[in-house]
Write a structure and sequence with these properties.
Chain lengths: 618, 247
């Protein structure tokens, strides 16, 4: 074959093969990829993949994303693109059980009606507005909705979708058993003629997402179908009941336990003059590798409120700085209040891991409940308080293999002997079905305060009704919701973030902000002083609106105004300087990067030319 | 291996010739100035306050569109015009070795230009903590893209004696590849032609493959794309040179 034929055939063949290979790449191999980002941002975590894979029935995802919003903001557009990517990853991992549909809810379209009907929230950016939400449906007509997807919560999108998948896939709502003597279910009227006591908000809110059951504190067994046991202020539980909880935990049951070194809400147990009683879960906690601080509570002098009349060191207000920012049940909480909270510590060598969810600062220490309640004014506690200079964990996630706290079974009293002698513990055979070890990891959330979940701590009565003032209840509800879900769900954490700001620039801004703030408060203080002085002068003159100025007073006033102007100038100068720093850095960055290397290349070019000329002349 | 050492000899000779004239220096300076200006001035890199090099990479396709054909056009058009192809072919090397040798030289030169942008990497690491994985794949993607443009350019330059024609045609062809996955184009194709063609056209767009690699994701389809583009272009290039030699 001569070369022109070879060329023609070769070119045609190449074109065909090129097309075929790339068609394969675009279709068959379209999902083969390597995610080389540091935090695997474009890949689902294993837990999420497990959840997608193990779905029993089909789930439909309907993504409503207004084109108007996407066009208005490139940041939002990028965000929506990544949300689509995450959803597509779920689809891919599900082997066909998840189906994704995209809708653009344009004005007056059907899609817009659907979006509104399903409760999606209208959002706006700049001048544009639209919808950005997700509706998820299973084949039984159940529906879960994410009403508005926001870039601020991007790191939790995987968790939110996974959690709803689990909820849709479950045939029934999880069964939550509440075991408590505190009257969470409501109770008889306190006095004659009064209405019965209402159930706690905790119970009412839980009933929205779970089948709630009351388990008496005298129970000797916990039914098999209970998914999560919510234990609130266990106290004086009998060995039989403790054994029941022990076996429940070993069998794979999940636990959310609220313990308190001094439970203020336990009014029933407090006779006049007695201290609020502590919770106790002793033999079980030890078996699970955890210690609770007994009757000592944690005080944090940096966090504690300082106003007069506040609870002072008895209270620990929690902001987002004190919570684990990667654990989905705690991370998004920024305002909680704990009162006389106890601390959890892991026992060395335990088979379980205790992961802190809420911690104090290092200016914290333990106080005995007795001393705290002995003083009339909590403010007195501050003077003598000596912090331990370490952090304390007041809420934690407990996870790991466990063994029974009752290796010989629960103690059972033998019947009294005929002579009426002492009753002895007769050795009994282990009960049927006694478990000695857990088959899978035990999962529990331990919270060191009981009072925090009572509405008195997180709601306030105003003229307009009851308002929520803290997120205490969300923490407990999140914990129960998550533990009622699948094991895979509990392994999900916050994903990596796409936002990586310039730390150097941020540091400059923070420094600038601080300095500016200092100057501003100085100026305000001076202004206050000047105004006070003016008022003083007016008072000296016996009030009235006209101020008669003596030459000395006039001079003083002039000086004051001059000083104020000077300070204002100073303030502007400081701000200008600090902005100048940031801009100067920017200019340096630009100059170095645009001109740097080109100058180097030109210089080396000249060097080479000179050398060559030198050689030529030599 | 002998085959490679022959090709390498050609490559070395070619590379040396780049630096004997001011051409290489001019190209490097223009490339670096343009890249720096587009990223840091036009692209407001500093003001965006994001520690990544996305604002740097996004200009590469456009820069390559104009700059790469200028390297590629010299590869074979000049030889054709000067009639030095026959001279080249008297040497004990095959067409394939000549083609690959020249191509490797051009690609290494482009890689060198890309490497000289390292101040951007230093800057972004000084200002913040970027995702190194994404930066690495971004550079890899850019290098592969330059390689793709070059392979096409090399093939096209062997078709004509006129460097200007080589430049314009290469730029046009590369531009077509860049348009291939633009939504406006794919929208039209999806509407009027069978979906298979739509998938195919989407699969040969430079932008999709490069944007994936800028993010930190290396897709098999991208490796296949660049590999097949470079491979087949050089193959056809070799056939063309063989044909020229014979005639």
């Amino acid at each position: 074959m001569d070369t022109s034929n070879k060329l023609a055939v070769g070119a045609a063949l190449s074109l065909g093969l090129f097309g075929a290979i790339n068609l394969l790449g675009a279709t068959v191999f379209s999902s083969s990829r390597m995610d080389l980002t540091e935090e695997k941002l474009y890949t689902l975590s294993e837990g999420a993949k497990d959840i997608a894979r193990s779905l029993d029935e089909t789930v439909r995802l309907e993504l409503y994303a207004s084109k108007e919003l996407r066009d208005a903001s490139p940041v939002l557009n990028g965000f929506v693109g990544r949300v689509e990517g995450t959803l597509e990853n779920f689809v891919r991992a599900s082997d066909g059980k998840i189906v994704l549909e995209r809708f653009d809810p344009e004005e007056f379209s059907e899609a817009e009606d659907e979006a509104a009907l399903n409760g999606l929230q209208r959002v706006g950016v700049g001048g544009a507005s639209g919808y950005l939400g997700l509706v998820m449906r299973n084949s039984f007509g159940d529906k879960e909705v994410i009403r508005a997807l926001t870039p601020a919560e991007e790191i939790f999108i995987e968790y939110e979708v996974a959690q709803r998948l689990v909820a849709l896939d479950a045939a029934d709502l999880p069964v939550v058993g509440i075991m408590s003597d505190l009257g969470i279910d409501g109770g008889p009227p306190m006095a004659q003629g009064q209405p019965p006591q209402p159930a706690w908000q905790l119970r009412t809110l839980l009933e929205r997402t779970a089948q709630v059951r009351t388990i008496p504190t005298s129970a000797t067994a916990i039914e098999d179908d209970v998914d999560v046991l919510l234990l609130v202020h266990p106290r004086g539980l009998s060995e039989a009941t403790l054994y029941a909880i022990d076996q429940f935990a070993l069998a794979g049951g999940r636990l959310v336990a609220l313990l308190d070194p001094s439970c203020v809400v336990d009014i029933g147990a407090q006779q006049a003059g007695e201290l609020p009683p502590p919770s106790s879960l002793d033999p079980l906690l030890a078996a699970w590798g955890v210690e609770f601080s007994g009757t000592d509570f944690v005080a944090d002098r940096l966090l504690a409120p300082q106003q007069e009349g506040s609870a002072g060191l008895l209270e620990i207000p929690i902001s987002s700085e004190q919570v684990d920012s990667e654990d989905p049940i705690a991370a998004r909480l920024s305002d909680m209040r704990f009162i006389t909270a106890g601390a959890f510590t892991a026992i060395e060598g335990a088979s379980t891991t205790l992961a802190p969810l809420v911690t104090t600062t290092e200016e914290a220490g333990l106080l005995r409940s007795a001393t705290a309640f002995a003083v009339a004014d909590p403010a007195e506690l501050r003077d003598d308080f000596l912090p331990a200079y370490r952090t304390f964990t007041i809420a934690a996630r407990l996870r790991g293999p466990i063994t029974t706290a009752f290796p010989e079974g629960p103690a059972v009293d033998a019947p009294a002997s005929e002579e009426g002698g002492e009753t002895e513990q007769a050795p009994t055979a282990l009960p049927d079905g006694h478990l000695a070890e857990s088959t899978s990891d035990f999962e529990a959330i331990l919270i060191g305060d009981v009072d925090m979940v009572h509405e008195a701590m997180w709601t306030q009565r105003t003229m307009f009704g009851t308002q929520k003032v803290a997120e205490n209840i969300d923490f407990v509800l999140n914990a129960v919701d998550q533990l009622g879900g699948s094991e895979a769900l509990m392994s999900l954490r916050a994903r990596g973030t796409f936002a990586r700001p310039f730390e150097v620039v941020e540091a400059l801004r923070v420094a600038a902000g601080e300095e500016l703030e200092a100057e501003r408060s100085r100026l305000e203080k001076e202004l206050e002083d000047i105004n006070a002085r003016i008022q003083e002068i007016a008072a000296e003159q016996g009030g009235g609106t006209t101020v008669l100025l003596t030459p000395e007073l006039e001079e003083e006033l002039d000086k004051a105004y001059a000083k104020r102007d000077e300070t204002r100038k100073e303030l502007r100068r400081v701000r200008f300087d600090l902005e100048r720093d940031e801009e100067a850095l920017g200019r340096r960055v630009k100059a170095l990067n645009v001109l740097g290397m080109p100058l180097v290349v030109i210089a080396s070019g000249i060097l080479v030319w000179l050398r060559r000329r030198g050689r030529a002349n030599a | 291996m002998n085959w490679f050492s022959n090709a390498w000899v050609v490559a070395k000779r070619e590379l040396k010739s780049y630096f004997t004239t001011p051409v290489a220096y001019v190209f490097l300076v223009v490339f670096l100035l343009l890249s720096g200006f587009l990223t840091f001035v036009q692209g407001s890199f500093y003001e965006n306050n994001q520690a990544n090099l996305l604002g740097f990479f996004r200009w590469h396709t456009w820069m390559y569109l104009f700059l790469v054909p200028s390297i590629a056009m010299r590869l074979w058009s000049e030889e054709r015009r000067n009639g030095t192809i026959e001279l080249l072919m008297t040497l004990p090397i095959t067409e394939a070795q000549a083609v690959v040798g020249k191509y490797v030289a051009a690609w290494l030169f482009a890689g060198f230009a890309l490497a000289l942008t390292f101040p951007a990497w230093i800057t972004v690491n000084y200002l913040g903590t970027p995702d190194q994985g994404a930066i690495a794949t971004g550079y890899l993607g850019s290098f592969l893209m330059a390689g793709g443009f070059l392979a096409l350019g090399s093939m096209i330059s062997s078709c004509t004696k006129n460097q200007i024609i080589a430049f314009v045609v290469t730029a046009t062809v590369c531009f077509l590849f860049m348009l291939a996955d633009v939504p406006a184009v794919t929208g039209v194709i999806d509407t009027y032609l069978p979906s298979v063609l739509g998938d195919l056209v989407r699969g040969i767009g430079f932008m999709t493959h490069f944007s994936g690699m800028q993010k930190g994701v290396v897709e098999l389809s991208s490796i296949l794309f660049f590999g097949s583009l470079i491979g087949f272009s050089l193959f056809v290039n070799t056939l063309i040179v063989g044909h020229l030699k014979a005639s």
